[in-house]
Amino acid sequence: MVTRENIVLVGFMGSGKSAVGRFVAKRLRFQFVDTDRLIVERAGLPIADIFAQHGEEHFRDLETSVLESLDGVQQSVIATGGGAVVMERNHAILKSLGYVVWLTASEDVIFDRVSRNDKRPLLQTENPRATISQLLATRRPLYESAADFSVDTTAFSHNAAADAVIAAAGRSFGWDTTP
Questions:
Q1: pLDDT at position 114, please?
Q2: Distance of CA 81 to the CA centre of its chain
Q3: What are the tens digits of pLDDT across the range 9-28?
């Protein structure tokens, strides 16, 4: 049983971490925390500019720093960036923050969702579809290792995905879910 009543969402870009996270937070009356937004606030630059000016390694260091800074939060839903699991040291931080849920989606759905946003630095490649496929293959075992539970959002509405996340977290936290 997880003692810290936070829900930490991990998963690939486009898997629904921010959208589903907002639904979960609202329904539980928890605070919603978006680590990418915190990184942008602290750096004073959009994520694409951080990557362009300072590189991915610098961005990952900022990401770890933001995760560490959340140590004291309670009753929060924390939506992480898609690459938060890339740094091995982040796995322990994520688990220390709360119950970690890996949101997944099919590659086709992810491509459809992320192709609407041209500001994704890791997809500024000649073949974004191939990049997604390669990154998914590389990150899948990392998400699996970091997570306590997974929810496939491919065919779920945000509401249905939120139901699944809340039910799993509730079991972990020992919440009484009887009416």
A1: 82
A2: 5
A3: 999 999 999 999 999 999 99
